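1st attempt posting a full record on here, be nice pls
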Amino acid sequence: MGETILFLGGAKSGKTRAALAKAETYPPPRYYLATAEALDDEMVVRIKNHQAERGPEWRTIEEPLDLSGALALAEPGAPVLLDCLTLWLSNVIGQDPESSDFDAVLARLDVFLAAAAKRAGPAIIVSNEVGGGLVPIDPVSRFFRDISGLCHQKIAKSADGVYLVTAGLSQKLK
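the predicted structure (as tokens):
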């Protein structure tokens, strides 16, 4: 069964770089499951920078919502790096922010985790740790903070490895 590894950290903490380094310990092909969408000029630049950081030996799957469907596109034994879970959450919540509920989002995450567990290759997940700051002022932002934390707990519980990345340094939590 597939190994699951979670990399958590703040913005620009080095979590993606650490996850890429971990993925590169596995033989190619390697897949990068991108959840970001190039909806504005700044995001276009961010995506291009991430592509350059990965290099040409990576195969990219772009999917903002259907994580388990995207996993099915990768070769069974190949590592898949999901970057990032919090962007996926933003995409899910953005579909209909008024009807977001914890159980529905966690059920979608369960589908992905089950698909990842059935694969022969590792699933490496990158996500932003957003729970350490101020309490957000609006309900949608509080929901996002809370569901992020619940998703991280769920992944960490079943993961084979969990790392917290700060200032480019990885600390193994599990």
